[in-house]
Design brief:
By secondary structure, this protein is of the alpha+beta class. The chain is built from eight helices and 17 strands.
Amino acid sequence: MAKSMVTRTYRARVRNHSQVRDDLDSLGFAASKLWNVARWTVGRVWDACGQIPSAFDLQKYLKSHERYADLHSQSSQRVLAELGEAFTAWYGHRGNGNQNANPPGYRKHHDEHPRSTVTFKQAGFKHDAANSRIRLSKGKNLKDGWGDFILCEYDVIGPRDTTVENVQQVRAVYEHGVWRLHIVCKVSVEVAESPGDRTAGVDLGICNVAAVSFGDESLLYPGGSLKEDDYYLGKKRAETDDSFSREARRLDQKRTDRRTHFFHALSKEIVAKCAERGVGTVFVGDLGGIRDDENGDPMNWGKHGNLDLHGWAFDRFTTMLEYKAEMQGIAVETVSERDTSKTCSVCGHTDDNQRVERGLYDCDECGTVANADTNGAENIRQKSTSESSSEDRSNGWLAQPAARLFDKTRGVFLPPEQATREP
């Protein structure tokens, strides 16, 4: 075992919630007000010159605004940075052909401001690890005196022996009617030795969430259960009278929780299968340009295709895979997916017409018939390794990968004959 420093986020309950709730509410409301001031400023600048100011420009412009001093300066900077990130994401959606994407709006529910997340960086908090306390700074406008602050006593949600040290950042998050603390720490963990020197390729998609190739066998992970949840919970949400109602928020949270669990289970499953086979490096297709054509212009995948594509959390899943693999001593690297769906993994011939159907790849040059996603995963694996695939295709692993279905009752991936699809 080797030691490694990693970043972990711990969720924590606030033990003295009744004592600090009002103060945390005031900070949450202040963050919403500052967001709205910045959003109004962006709109005014846009109307005047047709440009949207960056987060850095907003910080300089609003530094003297009275709402800026409601929070600690670093907390205010983070609110404006979040607005800048939201506009950047909107640019990306519009640039990729999603004309239904709306720019960031105001944080208001009717005439009320919601409680926004407040981020405290190094200068904005003090941590007392011995007594499980965190002191959070208020802004100048909300202080009764120079020594006024919020002292939160916390319990980590998780194993009782969890030690919170080397805190880098603290976020006060309003969840389900109460305030929680998200504590970001640098943690020293034991990392296993590499299981071996083999390689694997992972092709990410929508219908099949992931296809994994090991060079002599392959695994396929369909995303049917995700689509079922999205359809069912989306239908139930549409039946609610108010999109801001408690029931609507409950359904949104349920959908988010199910997707998060699915991604965690999938990344854990892939890492376990790689460790069993002595894989030391996993290559994952980089989907940064999947929404663009060869000239860099946005591609139109159709109404449903665009929604599916923009709703797929590619980066989030890759992050989960990376830190789970790290604990097993497995390296994760991203490689370009360019032409991996068009190229035959056996002979290397490239042709736009060889993928005759969504799930079928038929090579006119060498006659190979393969599952299209498995063929893509094998191409990704071969792109960054000298390790060639087996020449013996008699077992048909390219054409018939072993499917693993998500069992909703147990929350794990299993062979089709063992999995239960009922929710």
